[in-house]
Design brief:
The protein has ten helices and eleven strands. It is of the alpha+beta class. The chain binds adenosine-5'-diphosphate.
């Protein structure tokens, strides 16, 4: 096999109470990529489509950086070409950079007979993701690679836990077309948190993990609260509180900021409710004059996958 075409999915990180450790994978939004062996040694980004102004130099593109990290770890007498067909808007907060970082190493691994497991691939991808976010994290990479809900138990050593995804869970995403710099979203966070807030947060987080294991939708609803990050970051997203109130009123189990924003996710039981939440948010946000995109997706339990 000399060439492979893959779907590299969008992801939601943090998931309310799981700041920096929890994420889940989307099914209906993602990039496509073609990875091809080439006689010339090295990593070459040969095509980027989608209308975004992303760099072709491998060292400046997250897909190239993670590919280079893996290339250094293998001994081959050929190189790789990467084509990126981007659907996930960079900076949207649904793992645009993670999809690229994951796609290149997943595709290369398939072309050389899969010497690396998914945790090892995540390590290469972390280096690509670090280019975009200026710090090492895997909360978008892990769900993009493993699919479903994932918990990054630790970065050093890298330990990723795969959590079950209850069958009826769907996500509704709104992406208001405003720019939030990840650095600004980080800077706004407090350096310390009150013990009482920490207790609430880890109780919610623990119960969310339990709820995923037991497909307990009522408990998912009771657990999807973030008392530490959301009160600060929500100020950066216009009309955040109205969106959340609307989503919950329309039947969402919970609603929160996707990654560092500006996208906002709602988790819903059933496709019908997810679409109802979408329509309610759409009617609300259409009045604001701010451009936005919306997506409804089931949870993608496979993660990145071969499509041709
Ligand atoms: P997101 O959460 O949507 O991934 P980030 O802010 O983390 O957004 O990453 C987007 C940044 O990464 C942008 O500055 C973009 O120019 C840069 N970048 C470099 N290569 C890529 C790529 N292949 N895909 C997406 N973003 C990339």
């Amino acid at each position: 096999m000399n060439e492979i075409k893959i779907f590299s999915p969008a992801t939601v990180a943090n998931v309310a109470c799981g700041f920096d450790v929890l994420g889940f994978c989307l099914d209906s939004v993602g990039d496509q990529m073609v990875i091809r062996k080439t006689d010339k040694k090295g990593i070459y980004i040969t095509k980027i489509e989608g209308g975004f102004n992303l760099p072709y130099e491998a060292e400046l593109n997250v897909a190239g950086v993670s590919a280079l990290a893996m290339y250094e770890a293998i001994d081959v007498n050929f190189g790789f070409e990467i084509e990126i067909y981007k659907n996930i808007k960079p900076g949207s907060g649904i793992g645009s950079s993670a999809a690229s970082a994951v796609g290149s190493v997943f595709g290369m691994n398939e072309l050389i007979g899969k010497p690396f497991n998914k945790t090892q691939l995540t390590k290469f991808a972390i280096q690509g993701e670090a280019l975009a976010s200026k710090c090492e994290h895997a909360d978008n990479l892990a769900p993009a690679l493993f699919g479903g809900f994932t918990l990054v138990k630790s970065l050093v050593p890298l330990e990723i836990l795969e959590l079950p995804s209850p069958d009826a869970i769907f996500a509704t995403i709104i992406h208001p077309q405003i720019e939030i710099k990840t650095s600004e979203a980080r800077a706004i966070l407090p350096k310390e948190v009150a013990l009482s807030d920490a207790i609430t947060q880890w109780a919610n987080f623990g119960s969310l993990v339990h709820a995923l294991h037991t497909s307990n939708y009522d408990l998912i609803q009771k657990s999807l609260h973030d008392v530490i990050v959301e009160p600060h970051r929500s100020k950066l997203i216009p009309h955040y509180n109205e969106i959340k109130t609307t989503a919950l009123k329309a039947g969402a189990l919970g609603c929160g900021i996707s990654g560092s924003g500006p996208s906002i996710f709602s988790l819903c039981k059933g496709l019908k409710t997810a679409n109802h939440v979408k329509n309610a948010i759409e009617s609300l946000y259409a009045k604001t004059g701010i451009e936005f995109d919306m997506h409804v997706s089931k949870i993608n339990v496979d993660g990145v996958k071969i499509i041709d």
